[in-house]
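Holo prediction — S-adenosylmethionine.
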Amino acid sequence: MRSPDYDGIYRCHAQLGWMNLGYTEHERLFEDTNNVEVYMRNLATRLHQAAGLGAEHVAVDVGCGYGNQDIHFAELSPGVQIHAVNISPLQIEVAKKNLDAQPEAIQQSIQYYVGDAVNLPFDEGFADRVLSLESAFHYVTREAFFAEAFRVLKPGGRLTIADVVVGVPQSQEFMWWRRRGWPLVWWIGERCQFDRKSDQFPAENQYDLDAYVGKLQATGFVNVEAEDISDRIVLYPNERWANLAGWKAMVPRPWIPKSSQLGYIIHLLSSLKSRYVMVTAEKPA
Ligand SMILES: C[S@@+](CC[C@H](N)C(=O)[O-])C[C@H]1O[C@@H](n2cnc3c(N)ncnc32)[C@H](O)[C@@H]1O
């Protein structure tokens, strides 16, 4: 089984504490602010709303990154119990340090664990809510995570995922680009460690939204709802591309090394058909 180096891939985000792409309800960027952190917080708020996370809930947050989102959830729902899991020991270490600086009530609300989304360290029926913010496309496999979330949820509990769906298998698309004379794109992608990045979208997770919903239903989930929120997501490097692909333009992210930004753009060139979705599903009561 592949195991991308998530410690390394996301190290440049450590200072920020957030790693999602960002979300806005505004039609044009910068009407709100040019502080990307605000957009990232917005996306966590959007997930929190979709999850209907309440003070009375026990929640498992899978792929919690550096953990700012958990502090945010705990502020939005004082008293909630959050058990946050990430595969990266480095990210969990930073999250624990940041949590130590929080007020006592927030500290009491959150526990961090190093763990894998497909093998969660919780008993069956442990949680009212399972959340995953922009991480499930990484899991090997996302389908195995669906089964884990189902196991860990109480009957009547809800799974909420903000996720990227890649509609067309990337390798085939890359062959298409290459056949049409894009060896330069390929070469630059290699130079920018595109391989490592493409590992982030395992082939097993590359299916469209209908298949996604079908897999959740096959796992046993009911009331599965999937909303395409791509036109609210802050992603593309300029407005023209953003309009073309139906996403928002990107806010400058100076903390990402230039080489990674280039790799990121090339990565996007290969996946114009990807969409950003907010998915909710319930375990039958
Ligand atoms: C794009 S980041 C999002 C992090 C965080 N949710 C945020 O929005 O800031 C993806 C996260 O998924 C984590 N991850 C990848 N594979 C995982 C797995 N199998 N189990 C748990 N976490 C995983 C990575 O370490 C990384 O923190």
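READOUT: Confidence is low (pLDDT under 50) at residues 193-197.
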